[in-house]
Amino acid sequence: MVLVLKFTLSNLFFLFRKKYMFMKLIFLFLSVSFFSHFSMGQYRNIELQAAGLTCSLCSNAIQKALKGLPFVSGVRTELKSNMFMIDLRPGVDVNLDMISLKVEEAGFSVGKLSVEIKFDAVQIKNDAHVQSAGHIFHFLAVKPQKIEGWQKVKLMDKSFVLSAEAKKNQKLTTMNCYKTGVTADCCGMGSFPKGKRIFHVTI
Amino acid sequence: MSPYKLNYTKCLSLLFLFYFSGILQAQELYIITDPASNIPKNALSLRLNTMLMPMGQNMEGMKPGETGFRISPELAYGVTKNLMVKTAVYASDMFQPAFRFEGASVYAKYRFYSRDDFHKHFRVAGFGKLALSRNPYVIERMVMHENDGSGGNVPHEQLVFNGSDEQMLAGNHSGWQVGVVATQLVNKLALSGTVSGIGRFNNTGYPILPSDVQQSLEYSFSAGYLLFPRQYDSYGQTNLNLYVEWMGQQAFGKPTGFLDMAPAIQLIFNSKSRIDLGYRFQVGGNMRRFNEQQWLLRFEYNWLQAFK
Question: N or C: which end of chain B has fewer CB atoms below 10 A?
Answer without folding.
Answer: C
